[in-house]
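User: Here's a structure from my thesis project, written as C-alpha cells. My advisor, Dr. K., wants to see whether a designed sequence matches the one we expressed. Can you design one independently, without my sequence as a hint?
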C-alpha cells in the first residue's frame, strides 16, 4: 500500500469539501437538528413524567451516537458517490491505485468528517441540554470506536451494492440506518424486541454499544464482555465488508460493467 496514493484520495475529497459549502453543511446541519429536536423531547419527558430518571443522557445520548454512526457510514459511501456522479470512478482505477488504497482513503476521510460532526454534536448537546458523554470517562471512547467500525463496514457494503447493481441502487443505501435502528437497540434494550427478532439484534455490533452505554449511564459497572463482543463483531463486519467490496469490484471488472458505468441499473 502506497501512502501517497491514499493521501491522493484524501486530498481529492478535501478539495471537494473546501470548494463547496453544500458538501460541508450536511456534516453538521441535520445532526444539529436531531440533537435540538430530541433535546426538547427529552426535557419535555422529564417534566411530564416527574420521575427521578433523567431522559436526557439516555435518549439524547442515543440519538447523538446513532447520528455519529450514520455519519461514519455516509462518510464512506458519499465519497464513493462523488466519484460515481462525476464519472470519475473508472479513471481512478486506470491508475496504479489498488482497492485497499482506495478504501483506506475513504475510511480516513470518514474519520475526519465523523470526528468533526461528533464534535459539533457534543458542543450543541453540552451547551443546550447539559449533556456531556465525556463525563463518563475513558469508557466513552471504546463505544464510539465500535460504532465507527460498524459504520465503516456498512459504508463499504453500501458501495459494494452500488458496484453490483449500479448507481440507481443508491436509493437502497440512504435508508439503511433507519432500517437498522429498530433492531439495533438504540432507544430500548434488546429484551423489548420480540423473541424472533432478538437473534438479529445480537449480531449487530451497535446493539452491544447501546446496551453498554445504558448500563454506564445508569451508574452500573461497564459490561466489558458486552463491549468485547461488540468490538469483535465490528471487526468481523469490516473484514467481511472489504471482502464483499473486492468481490463486487472484481466482478464488475470481469464482466465489463465497470467500463459501462451509467445512471441506469446494471444486472
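Assistant: Designed independently from the structure alone:
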Amino acid at each position: 500500500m502506497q501512502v501517497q496514493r491514499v493521501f491522493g484520495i484524501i486530498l481529492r475529497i478535501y478539495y471537494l469539501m473546501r470548494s463547496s459549502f453544500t458538501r460541508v453543511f450536511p456534516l453538521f446541519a441535520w445532526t444539529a437538528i436531531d440533537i435540538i429536536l430530541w433535546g426538547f423531547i427529552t426535557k419535555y419527558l422529564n417534566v411530564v413524567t416527574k420521575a427521578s430518571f433523567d431522559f436526557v443522557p439516555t435518549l439524547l445520548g442515543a440519538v447523538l451516537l446513532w447520528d455519529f454512526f450514520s455519519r461514519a457510514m455516509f462518510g464512506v459511501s458519499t465519497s464513493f458517490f462523488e466519484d460515481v456522479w462525476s464519472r470519475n470512478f473508472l479513471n481512478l482505477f486506470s491508475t496504479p491505485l489498488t482497492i485497499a488504497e482506495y478504501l483506506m482513503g475513504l475510511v480516513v476521510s470518514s474519520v475526519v468528517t465523523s470526528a468533526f460532526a461528533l464534535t459539533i454534536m457534543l458542543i450543541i448537546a453540552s451547551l443546550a441540554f447539559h449533556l456531556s458523554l465525556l463525563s463518563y470517562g475513558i469508557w466513552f471512547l471504546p463505544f464510539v470506536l465500535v460504532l465507527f467500525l460498524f459504520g465503516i463496514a456498512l459504508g463499504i457494503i453500501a458501495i459494494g451494492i452500488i458496484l453490483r447493481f449500479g448507481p440507481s441502487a443508491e436509493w437502497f443505501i440512504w435508508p439503511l440506518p433507519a432500517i437498522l435502528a429498530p433492531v439495533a437497540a438504540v432507544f430500548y434494550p434488546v429484551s423489548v424486541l420480540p423473541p424472533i427478532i432478538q437473534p438479529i439484534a445480537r449480531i449487530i455490533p451497535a446493539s452491544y454499544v447501546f446496551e453498554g452505554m445504558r448500563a454506564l449511564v445508569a451508574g452500573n459497572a461497564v459490561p466489558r464482555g458486552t463491549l468485547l463482543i461488540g468490538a469483535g463483531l465490528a471487526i468481523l463486519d469490516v473484514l467481511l465488508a472489504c471482502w464483499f467490496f473486492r468481490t463486487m469490484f472484481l466482478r464488475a471488472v470481469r464482466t465489463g460493467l465497470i467500463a459501462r458505468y451509467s445512471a441506469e441499473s446494471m444486472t
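When you compare it with your expressed construct, this may help: The two ends are 32 Å apart (CA to CA).
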